[in-house]
Design a protein that fits this description.
By secondary structure, the chain is an alpha+beta fold. The chain folds into two domains: 313 residues, no CATH class; 213 residues, Orthogonal Bundle (Serum Albumin, Chain A, Domain 1), CATH 1.10.246.130. Helices cover 34% and strands 16% of the residues. The protein is built from 20 helices and 19 strands. It has a seven-stranded antiparallel beta sheet with strand order 1-18-17-13-12-9-8. A seven-stranded antiparallel beta sheet has the order 7-4-3-11-10-2-19, with helices on one face. Strand 3 and strand 4 form a beta hairpin. The structure holds 6-diazenyl-5-OXO-L-norleucine.
């Protein structure tokens, strides 16, 4: 940090010490949140409240907010806004997400703030004149963006919060205006995206630098600070109307984008009903469509529940095989049956019916790999950047939020003058039947593009209760690997008795029906590879899967929080 910033920094601390609703309470507490010096905490126990998310500064801000009288919803808002500044690859105001929560009053809340296709979107918008899918257009640049939902989601959460919104957004404004020091991982990530930032922007956004980024550099985002200030002053209208909306619409004109000021004004977050089911005496609460996360998790967990194979234990060939086969079968249904329930009749009852699920496993043969070519989607008669935040507070509120721009840094296009990245979520639609998206997911009519429709997601924020009492808050990024990561983290805790740190950090495996392969993470044991190979599985090495954030509530003022070791993720609490 150079001396100019030392001075600014101490001036801010000085102001912050005078706590009031209009100033910066978060910086006043004995320098607990220092944007220029911070470390990661991966696994910790707290008495009152905990946050686990992708960046130490955002976790610390969440914990501060709760210490100062805010609840888990206040923290969820402040953490999301802080991540939009300190974790630009996935934290966002230009994307969307899902929040599932259980209030201390036992009421559940599921907020869907997924992006929607703009009014001028159409089914074949990414096909060339010969009908070939142009995935570059659904994945990069202005045409790849859906209408953002995050700010609408935040304002739908606000009634459950306690503090003034101005307090919750101030840390993000200060981080954007005064800068924060980046980590080595962030520097590498920014460096590897320089070309894409230059290609997809008409100006040089804050993320572009002539010399390579390095750990310890300070990233300033003054345009983003101004946008956040408009939101602070005008609420959701500070994003969906007025100057910010105008800047988004103008950005569209600089290329092939189609989002209009009307699209922005029309955006609405929706309240959904959580998808809840029982597993081994616990109640699991996941997100329903337009996310596939909850239903895939339900199917996988129900397919393995009470099986002899699972009892053989963690990383046994038997338990691993049955989990792989449950993954294969659950994902087969995704492509065929799932889409935005407001546009497509999703057969959710049939897909979660226990007889249907056990029938799906009737052709499972222990010791022999099934073949995806023979496991089709069930016949229904009824008709890699994202980021997760887990929070628990001292009142007993549980908040689980997964939010995303889709790919790392989304469309790579920054709204000129507004300083934030737009999502490339349109790629989560089925651009053409049978053509895989960036996560290898295929789809058909259920997930085809229509104006105002939400694209199918895999995001899977989850809370677990037992007889109404809070037990687990969990979730992860990872595209289509999200439900399998959550599944394995839950199995590791509920079946294999691991602590939270091991549960999220043990090597994972992923099968998504197509391609017919088991993807395995570094560290997957050789002996288990040999066993699975001999059963006929094709194993494919891949880089890390997910960044899971898990909080376990033991009761009696014992809260165990873990943040994934695959990233800069960190916990905080008190
Ligand atoms: O909603 C979805 O399923 C995807 N847009 C999530 C993307 C993602 O997790 C990328 N992260 N690693």
């Amino acid at each position: 940090m150079n001396s100019v910033f030392s001075i600014i920094f101490f001036v801010i601390i000085g102001i912050g010490e005078v706590f009031s609703q209009s100033q910066t309470p978060w910086l006043g507490a004995g320098k607990e949140v220092d944007p220029y010096h911070y470390t990661q905490v991966k696994h910790e126990f707290y008495q009152n409240a905990a946050v686990s998310c992708a960046h130490p500064l955002a976790s610390l801000i969440g914990a501060q907010i709760m210490k100062r009288g805010g609840n888990a919803f206040d923290a969820g808002i402040a953490v999301q806004l802080a991540l939009a500044v300190v974790y630009p690859a996935a934290g966002n105001i230009g994307g969307g997400g899902f929040l599932i929560a259980k209030k201390a009053t036992n009421e559940f809340l599921a907020i869907d703030y997924r992006e929607v296709a703009p009014g001028r979107a159409s089914k074949n918008m990414y096909l060339d004149k010969d009908g070939n899918a142009q995935l570059d257009l659904s994945q990069n640049g202005r045409l790849a963006s859906g209408v953002p939902g995050t700010i609408a989601g935040i304002f739908s959460t606000l009634p459950a919060a306690k503090l003034n919104f101005k307090i919750l957004i101030q840390p993000a404004i200060d981080l954007a205006a005064n800068g924060y020091v980046i980590t080595e991982r962030e520097a590498n990530s920014l460096n590897s995206n320089q070309k894409a930032f230059i290609k997809n922007n008409s100006y040089s956004p804050a993320f572009v630098k002539s010399a390579a980024w390095k750990a310890g550099d300070t990233l300033f985002q003054p345009e983003l600070a101004a946008t956040l200030t408009r939101i602070k002053e005008n609420g959701a209208k500070g994003f969906y109307e007025g100057e910010t909306a105008k800047l988004i619409a103008e950005e569209m004109q600089r290329g092939n984008g189609i989002i209009t000021v009307e699209d922005l004004k029309n955006y609405q977050a929706k309240i959904r009903k959580p998808l809840s089911f029982n597993y081994g005496g616990y109640q699991i609460h996941g997100f329903p469509p337009p996310s596939s996360g909850g239903i895939i998790l339900l199917q996988m967990m129900k397919m393995v529940e009470n099986t002899q194979q699972l009892k053989k234990g963690f990383q046994s060939p038997e338990a691993t095989q049955i989990m792989i086969e449950s993954e294969r079968r659950a994902y087969a249904d995704r492509a065929e049956h799932l889409g935005d329930p407001d546009f497509w009749k999703v057969p959710i009852k049939a897909l979660s019916n226990e007889q249907y699920i056990s029938k799906r496993m009737s052709d499972f043969t222990p010791g022999i790999a099934s073949k995806s070519s023979q496991v089709k989607a069930g016949d229904i008669k009824e008709s890699e950047e994202t980021t997760h935040i887990s929070i628990y507070d001292k009142e007993g509120n549980m908040v689980s939020i997964t939010t995303t721009l889709n790919g790392g840094y989304g469309s790579k296009t920054v709204v000129k003058g507004a300083g934030f990245l737009l999502n490339n979520e349109m790629d989560d639609f089925s651009v053409k039947p049978g053509v895989a998206n960036m996560f290898g997911a295929v789809g058909g009519e259920a997930n085809s593009i229509q104006p105002g429709k939400r694209m199918l997601s895999s995001m899977c924020p989850v809370i677990v209760t037992k007889n109404g009492k809070p037990v687990i808050v969990v979730g992860t990024p990872g595209g289509t690997t999200i439900p399998t990561s959550v599944f394995q983290a839950l199995m590791n805790v509920l079946e294999f008795n691991m602590n939270t740190d091991d549960a999220i950090n043990q090597p994972k495996f992923h099968h998504q029906h197509l391609p017919d392969e088991v993807f395995i993470e570094p560290g997957f044991p050789d002996k288990l590879k040999t066993s699975l190979n001999s059963m006929g599985y094709k194993l494919t090495n891949r880089n890390s899967i997910g960044k899971t954030e898990l909080i376990y509530i033991h009761g009696n003022k014992k809260i165990e929080a873990a943040a994934d070791r695959r990233g800069d993720d960190s916990v905080a609490g008190y």
